[in-house]
Amino acid sequence: MSEIKELKDMDKKTNMDGYSKVAPFVIRDCALSAIATGLRAQNLRELRDALVTVHGGSIYYHFWGGLLRPGFDDPEFNNDFASWIHHRLHDAKLAEQIGVIDPASFSDMEELRRELIDVIEKRLDETEFLSWAPRDRQFHFIRAQTVVFDTNHFIQRPPELANIISSLSLGSIYYHVIDARRRSPQAIDDFRAWLMLFGDEFADLYSRLAQLDPYFVSLIELREQFTAIFKEYFTGSRA
Amino acid sequence: MNSLLATYANVIGEDIVDHLTQLSRPLRGMKVVHVNSTRQGGGVAEILNWLIPLQRELGMEAHWEVIQGQNEFYQCTKQFHNALQGNAAIINQVSLKEYEQTNCQFAEKHGALLQDADVVFIHDPQPAASIKYFPKRKGKWIWRCHVDASHPYRPVWRYLSKIVSDFDASIFSLADFSQMLPHPVYLIPPSIDPLSEKNVELSEDEIRNVCLQHNIDPKRPIMLQVSRFDRFKDPLGVIEAYRLATAFIPTLQLVLAGSGADDDPEGAVVLAEVQTAAREDADIHILLLPPDAHRTINALQRAADFVLQKSLKEGFGLTVAEAMWKAKPVIGGDTGGIRLQIIDHHTGFLVNSPEGAALRIRYLLHHRQHLLEMGAKAREFVRQNFLITRHLREYLTLMVGLVHQAEYSHG
C-alpha cells in the first residue's frame, strides 16, 4: 500500500484542480467468514428443495464466494452448483446450463434463485432416474458473513487510480468491484459510482470500465484489468 | 511492524500481514481467552502456541488457560473424543460427574477472567461444560471442535450437544465434519506454521545428511509418505503403487516415515505387515522416527521428488500442506480434507487405488518440468490458503463479526 497516501498527508491544495468538490474514495477491505447452514443435498431434487428455502446469502456465496476461497485462476465452472452437478451427479448438460448463469445479470438474489430453480426443475422434468452423489460428496449449503474494515487510505483524485489499483488487496478488489454491485442501486462497481460524481468528465473511462466482465475472471485478473484501463486512460501507457 | 509479524511478513509477504493488522483494529484491547486441556503435545496446543503470541502482537489481551483433572476426567474426555468420531463409547455416571466437577472447579478458579472476557474460545469437549457456570457471562463464547464430528456416537452426542448448544457460535474444520447447532457454525480449516521445525527452510547439506543417515540416495528419485502405520493411511497400498511404478522406473526409492507404534497394538500389526511387504527391497526405507523428529521429516519432505498421502480415510491431513509448502506435488487419497488441499492436476493428483497412484508416479517422473510447475503452484496455493496467517485471519473475521457485528452480513 506504499503508493496510497493517507488522508492526513494529503495536500489540501488539491482544491485548485477542481476535484475537491467530490469526497475522496474511501478504500475498504473485507474478509469473509464461511458459515454452515446445515442444509445439504445428495441428488438434484434435494438440491432444488434446498434452493427454495435457503437464505439468499448462501446462493450469493456459492456464486461469488469462490473468488476469495482456495481455488485457481481458471476454474472449470464459475459457481459451486455447476461444479457439483458435473462432478458428483455427472449431469454434464445441466452443469453447462447452470455454469453459464451470470449472477451479475440479475438484479437481486431472489431473481437468481428463481432462475436456478427454473433450470433445475426443467431438467427434473426430463429426468427418469435421479443420480445420487456419494454420501461424503453431498452439496453443503454455506453462507458468508462479510466483515468490512477501513484501510485508512483514500483516493483524492481520479488520476491516482492509475497507480493505486495494483497495490490493493484482493479483499479490497472484491469489496469495491464484486460486492459493490449488490450494494449499489445501479448494480455497478464502486469505482464507476465514484467517477459518476464528477459528471461527464470521465464518461469515456466509465464506459471502458463498464465493459469488464467480473464474473469469468479471478480477482487477480480483475485487478490487472482495472489497472490496465486506468493506466492507459490517465498516463497513456499500458500496464 | 512488530517482531513476530515482521518475521512472518518476510516469509509470506507484507500484504498479508497488513491485511491482518487492519482487520484486527476493532479488536485491540479486547480480552480473549483460549481454553484447552494440554499445553504441550497435540494439534490444539500447537495452534495455541502460535495463535496466542500473534493475537497479543495484534493488540489483544490474549490468555491461554488449561483445564486439568484426575484420571477419571481424562478417561471420560477420551471417550468423548472417540464418540465424536463415531466410535461407540460407554460413559458411566461417575465419569460424567467427574467431568462436570472438574469443569466446575476450573470455572471457580478462573471465574473473574472468564466472566469478563470479551471472547472465550473453548477447544474441544474437555472444558466445554464450564460454560454453564457463567450464566451472566459478558462476552461471546465459541466452541472449537477440532475433530470430524460428522457421524458421532449418538448417545454421547446427545449429552454433549446440550452443553455446546449454549455457546454463541461454534467452529468446525469443514462442512463435512460439522453438526448443526442452534447458533452460527463457522467453518475454518486448519493450517501449518511456516516457521516451525516441520516447515522452516533447511540447508542443502542438512537435507543431504538426513538422506545419507538413513541410507537414502539423494541422487535417485525419492517418493515419500509421512504417516502413522495405520490401515487408513494405506501404507501397503503405497508399496503396491511403488512396485507398479518401479517396473518402469527401477531407480525409484520409497520412504515410509512414521513415529513409533508402541502404544498402539494395531499400529504394531500394520508395521509388521509393512515390513513383510517391503522385505528384500533395499530401496524401500521404513523409518520409525521419534514423535519430535520434525526436522528430519522436514528434510525428507524436501529431499523427495514428490510426496504421497494415499489415505483411505483422513481427517484434514495437514502433511499434504506441509509437503506442498516445500513445493512438492502430492499424490493423495480422494478423501476428507485432502480434497481441499490437492487441486487435482494442479497441486497434485487425487487417486482411489494403488494403480491410480502408480500412474501418477510415472507421470510425474516422466514430466519433470510439469512436476516442478505443479510444485510451485502447490507452494503458492498453501501460501494463500493453508498458512497460519489465513487461519488467524479467519479467527479475526469471526471475532469481529461476532463481537462488533459485521458491517453487514449475508444472512
Question: Would you mind describing this structure in some detail?
Answer:
- The complex is a heterodimer of chains A (239) and B (411).
- Chain A has 239 residues and is α+β, with helices and mostly antiparallel strands.
- Chain A folds into two domains: 7-29 and 151-235, no CATH class; 31-143, no CATH class.
- In chain A, 43% of the residues lie in helices and 14% in strands.
- In chain A, α2 crosses α5.
- Chain A is elongated and about 65 Å long.
- The two termini of chain A are 18 Å apart.
- The relative contact order of chain A is 0.18.
- Chain B has 411 residues and is an alpha/beta fold.
- The model of chain B is unreliable at 407-411 (pLDDT under 50).
- In chain B, β7, α9 and β8 (253-259) form a beta-alpha-beta unit.
- Chain A binds chain B through residues 1, 29, 31-36, 38, 40, 55-58, 60-61, 70-72, 136, 140, 142-152, 169, 171, and chain B through 15, 18-19, 22-23, 25-26, 172, 175-176, 178, 180, 184-188, 335, 340, 343, 346, 377, 381, 384-386, 393-394, 396-398, 400-401, 406-411.
- β1 of chain A pairs antiparallel with β6 (185-187) of chain B.
Number of domains of chain B: 2
In what order do the strands lie side by side in the largest sheet of chain A?
Answer: 1-2
Helix-strand category of chain A? alpha+beta
* H/E series of chain A: EHHHHHEHHHHH
- Judged by helices, strands and strand pairing, the structural class of chain B is alpha/beta
**CATH topology descriptor of the largest domain in chain B:** Rossmann fold
The total count of strands of chain A amounts to 2
Largest sheet of chain A: 2 strands, antiparallel
Oligomer: heterodimer
Rounded to the nearest angstrom, the distance between the terminal CA atoms of chain B is 36 Å
Q: What best-fitting shape of chain A do the alpha-carbon axes yield?
A: elongated
In the CATH hierarchy, the architecture of the largest domain in chain B is 3-Layer(aba) Sandwich
Kindly state the number of beta strands of chain B: 12
Proportion in helices of chain B: 40-55%
